[in-house]
């Protein structure tokens, strides 16, 4: 571990890696600052564009974009009461009231510092927790991997969105897509429809761009917002900003960072959940809870530290188990696969220098927020809010097509991407969650291969899947997750009975 960590530190000192982290952070802030664009869209566009880069440079871009976009979402949330990303919703509660009081500069400064602290804390947790967990997972065999894949898939399907049935249907559609191509056990070709391009299965980059980026762009075109934000509405320079002592925020940062890390490790959670929990806890524990929602800087600090401390923590199950903690982690996992890196127990053993380099990049890009997310940069990035969304939509589509075509020079994949995009748009309009679908594509092959391998080893004995204590434990967790919707239904029925009674 120490040798790989030292080697990663020296590898990051090259100009290309430093430039990647700086550029990724800047682009992330811009993406987060634009309502309608999200971290998932940015990563979906970035992954194919980074195909020709070295793995460490590509991961530096991803780390910078991830951390930068989390802070960027606070810019419109504070200035316009419009969250740039879903995780910035809680930031609007106190951020915009501070702007109305003439304290926009202080609010942005608190958000910047809080995002940096949360991101650094999360990366530190990833550095300390992931290596020992990866050693534990070396004891895993095919049955354990099957249950891990099932647990990740069921957790995302049940816990994301308001309808578990739609979540499970979405996950099953992902499993269906993952079955396209050559059977890894028998070598037979499945569902290729005579197309040689589908023999190796559906390109994960095609699915990522089609399902995550294109539906959002189509929604932007549908909204047809033809005007950007006026300069007078940004309110950065309005009034005299009242400075707030940063030292008073330290307890809030510590509490919110711990909450965000714990939420990030849980599959199916996300930065928005971490932000709400951190905000509620900050309000509950404060001496003046009534001031929250009226421009209390601690509310901004709690929300931003909470959603940013989810960042690297969500990568802990991704890197060690190969199970993404949320949709963004699933995209980064896709980026790892594109560059020939297989997340899981062998990742730290076989590619230690690269994976530790990525952990350090998450730390460094968090620190870069202090320098790049200060008031000068914020004033510049806030100007991107003036670009109309109808102009952004075609530019984004052009970048997606260019990035995808450079991967394999395949027109067939471009048409597939458009098909997946239209399909994803229809699912989104029908309120089907898309993360379970993409997770089904990523984890489907892992679940199928390990299930069939375990059955071959045991000569068809299904009880072999529950032979070890680890398998029994993970299978029990799967059952508990499946019981969550039933528990919610019972609670709702009881609440309705009490209201009617």
UniProtKB/TrEMBL annotation:
Keywords: Membrane, Transmembrane, Transmembrane helix. It comes from Marivita lacus. The chain crosses the membrane at residues 12-34, 40-66, 73-93, 113-133, 145-162, 168-186, 198-218, 253-277, 319-342, 354-378, 390-408, 463-487. Residues 19-439 form the DUF112 domain. Residues 285-306 are annotated as: Disordered. It holds the Pfam family TctA. This is C4-dicarboxylate ABC transporter permease. It comes from the Bacteria.
């Amino acid at each position: 571990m120490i040798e790989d960590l030292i080697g990663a530190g020296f590898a990051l000192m090259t100009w290309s890696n430093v430039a990647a982290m700086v550029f990724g952070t800047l682009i992330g802030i811009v993406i987060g600052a634009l309502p309608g664009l999200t971290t998932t869209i940015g990563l979906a566009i970035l992954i194919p564009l980074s195909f020709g880069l070295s793995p460490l440079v590509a991961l530096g871009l991803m780390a910078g974009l991830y951390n930068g976009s989390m802070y960027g979402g606070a810019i419109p949330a504070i200035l316009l009461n419009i969250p740039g990303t879903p995780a910035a919703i809680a930031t609007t509660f106190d951020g915009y009231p501070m702007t109305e009081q003439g304290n926009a500069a202080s609010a942005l400064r608190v958000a910047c510092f809080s995002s940096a602290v949360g991101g650094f804390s999360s990366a530190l947790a990833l550095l300390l927790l992931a290596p020992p967990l990866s050693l534990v997972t070396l004891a895993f065999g095919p049955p354990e991997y099957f249950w891990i894949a099932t647990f990740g898939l069921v957790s995302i399907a049940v816990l994301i969105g308001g309808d578990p049935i739609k979540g499970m249907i979405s996950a099953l559609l992902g499993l269906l897509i993952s079955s396209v191509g050559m059977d890894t056990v028998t070598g037979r070709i499945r569902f290729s429809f005579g197309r040689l391009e589908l023999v190796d299965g559906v390109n994960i980059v095609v699915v990522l761009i089609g399902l995550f980026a294109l539906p959002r762009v189509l929604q932007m075109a549908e909204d047809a917002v033809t005007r950007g934000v006026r300069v007078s509405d940004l309110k950065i320079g309005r009034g005299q900003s009242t400075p707030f002592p940063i030292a008073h925020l330290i307890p809030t940062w510590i509490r919110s960072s711990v909450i965000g890390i714990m939420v990030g490790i849980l599959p199916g959670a996300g930065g928005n959940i971490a932000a709400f929990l951190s905000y509620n806890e900050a309000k509950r524990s404060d001496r003046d809870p009534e001031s929250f929602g009226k421009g209390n800087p601690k509310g901004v600090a709690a929300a931003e530290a909470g959603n940013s401390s989810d960042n690297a923590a969500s990568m802990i199950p991704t890197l060690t188990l190969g199970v993404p903690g949320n949709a963004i982690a699933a995209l980064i996992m896709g980026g790892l696969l594109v560059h020939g890196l297989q997340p899981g127990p062998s990742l730290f053993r076989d590619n230690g220098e690269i994976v530790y380099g990525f952990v350090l990049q998450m730390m460094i890009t968090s620190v870069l927020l202090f320098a790049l997310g200060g008031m000068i940069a914020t004033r510049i990035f806030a100007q991107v809010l003036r670009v109309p969304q109808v102009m952004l939509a075609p530019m984004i589509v052009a970048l997606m097509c260019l990035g995808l075509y450079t991967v394999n020079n395949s027109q067939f994949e471009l048409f597939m991407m458009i098909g997946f995009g239209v399909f994803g748009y229809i699912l989104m309009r029908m309120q089907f969650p898309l993360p379970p679908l993409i997770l089904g594509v990523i984890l489907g092959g892992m679940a199928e291969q390990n299930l069939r391998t375990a059955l071959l080893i045991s000569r068809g004995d299904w009880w072999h899947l529950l032979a070890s204590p680890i398998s029994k434990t993970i299978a029990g967790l799967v059952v508990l997750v499946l019981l969550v919707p039933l528990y919610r239904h019972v609670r709702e029925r009881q609440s309705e009975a009490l209201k009617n009674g």
